[in-house]
Amino acid sequence: MRIRTVQSADEQVACVALADGRLARIDRVLTHGPSDLLSLLASERLGELATAIAVGVRDEDCVNADAPVSVPWTRPRKILGIGLNYGAHAGDLGEQAPRSSPASFLKGDHTIVGPGQPIIVPPGIGKVTSEAELGLVIGRTCYQVDVDEAMSYVAGVVPVLDQTAEAVLLENPRYLTRVKNYPTFFAFGPDLITLDEALAHGPLEDLRVATVHNDVVHREDTVSGMTFSPAELLSFHSQVMPFYPGDILSTGTPGAVGISSGDVVRCELGDELASLTNPVQ
């Protein structure tokens, strides 16, 4: 399934994008269903939703197919980012990819913007980069799990554009929290793509992740090029902290590109699985 949040009349509602182009409201397809995507994840009713969709959806349970797409949700309990998880990107910063354990950082929900919303480059901080990433969305509480079971806690994937104040970071690598937490420095969406839907396009390790700048592919790699796999990242960090439904684990970028006002950046997952596009101001 592909699940998104759209603006319908004067409210935002979570919908499933159906194969025939219709948008089915979750709160009408499910009995006592939630109206927002984060509550859907917290209720752990994705399986029930898939069954209801397979049975069939009435037209009166759908919204306008052209309804504007919004940010999927704005209040995850945590956004965890991974640094230098591809060797090539580590070289961009004059670093080596960590080998013994992954490097990570937390981002506040004030950094979130949705598809098509502007990424704002703050004045006076020097070079800012944008980085396409594969985001894992947690579907149920996940704490101290093994690598071989970690992906069973993942509800789905999202395209991510993660921003960095690179000039500030190069002053001191300990500034990681500072350089990652300006407003608009985390874009994701438009769809939560359930894990079964993503895997229907092929093994996750074969998934292409590309940073695209002004319609030119700047850097791309596959998930197999990560130093630490998605399952390893989730398992490792779950030993330290619990993950909750709606939390996002952004798994690192194959390459960061410098951005400035007037640019357009895009994250592409696969050739056709998903893309996220944001303008820069």
UniProtKB/TrEMBL annotation:
Ranges for domain Fumarylacetoacetase-like C-terminal: 78-280
MF term (GO), any: hydrolase activity
Top-level taxon in the UniProt lineage: Bacteria
InterPro entries: FAH, Fumarylacetoacetase-like_C, Fumarylacetoacetase_C_sf
Keywords of the record: Hydrolase, Metal-binding
Record flagged with keyword Lyase: no
UniProt record similarity statement: Belongs to the FAH family.
Name of this protein: Fumarylacetoacetate hydrolase family protein
